[in-house]
Each structure stands twice: as C-alpha cells, then as structure tokens.
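Here is one chain, start to finish.
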Amino acid sequence: MPPPEGGDFIDSVETIGFTLSPDGSQLAYLAADAAGGRSIWLRPLSSFAARALPGTDGARSVFWSPDSRSIGFSPVAS
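Its structure:
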C-alpha cells in the first residue's frame, strides 16, 4: 500500500500510525500529504483508494471504536 501521492506515512515512537478496524474491513493510518499536512487516511480493504478524513489535521494517534463505526484520535500536543 503506497502513501498518499507525494506524501509519506507517519509512524514513530510518539505515534500510533496504523490500525485495522475490529471488523477487519478498513485500515486507518496517519500520513502526510504532498504539502506536509498530517491527517488520518481511511482505506477500505476492498479497494485501493484511500481518502483523508476531514477534521483530523495534526492527528498523532488513531484508534477504532469496538463496533468499527467510529474513529478516535489524539491531536498533536501544542
């Protein structure tokens, strides 16, 4: 799975960068776009297309609710 076009994955000791939904249908991950903007990206495992989730700019970690219907995240500390 490649990162967003012109971007890169974000994964370090300070972040939780990839997480599979509990139902196994989707992958949520942290990535930076070509402009360096960091956000959560969502990719259904049934597709190669991923999309950035609005409102997740600066996310530091990502996690799923137990029912796979919601995503939570921690913002970058200011």
